[in-house]
Write a structure and sequence with these properties.
The chain has 160 residues and is mostly helical. It is built from eight helices and no strands. The chain has helices at 4-18, 22-37, 48-64, 68-88, 99-115, 121-130, 133-140, 156-159.
Length: 160
């Protein structure tokens, strides 16, 4: 199984979800994490544990209506559930043996974005640009016309 496709699915989900208006982004994601909690119900691979897990995820999703951290927690819980299903041979999609494993690779990508506060695409791009090597160097060590390599002598205040 390739991990590239599940990673790309997670990235595409994050990008598309980040395009939603701020006021709708968190509630939409809370609803999705609640749905993810019920994804395995029809298979019943873990018996009554499926109902318990769905209940826990519903509670986590409810808290997620007001907290990105709970949505991120929900995706991490679902990752663990995916791994259990993969190890038991009870995949989320019966026609694809590795579907639960793929889901376990995809979900943490979404969780990381949620734990970061579910930022918009423009905010994420701004963060990437502001953390580039060049901007970090310029921000921490701005160029100075005064100094040992400069022909301009240091000012009186700089010497004292």
């Amino acid at each position: 199984m390739s991990v590239v496709v599940p990673l790309l699915i997670g990235v595409v989900f994050v990008v598309l979800s980040s395009l939603l208006p701020d006021r709708h982004r968190r509630p939409f994601n809370a609803i999705l994490v609640a749905g993810a909690g019920a994804a395995y119900l029809s298979g019943g691979g873990l018996g009554a544990g499926e109902l318990l897990f769905t209940t826990v995820m519903a509670l986590v999703a409810h808290r997620g209506l007001t907290s990105w951290r709970f949505i991120g927690l929900g995706w991490l819980l679902h990752t663990g559930w995916d791994v259990l299903h993969h190890l038991r041979g009870e995949p989320i999609l019966p026609l694809d043996h590795d579907s639960s494993l793929g889901c376990a690779v995809c979900d943490p990508v979404i969780a990381i974005w949620c734990l970061a506060g579910g930022p918009s695409l423009t905010t994420m791009i701004g963060r990437v640009q502001s953390t580039s090597i060049g901007s970090r160097i310029l921000t921490r060590n701005p160029p100075s016309p005064v100094g040992p390599d400069s022909s301009v002598p240091p000012s009186r205040s700089a010497r004292s």
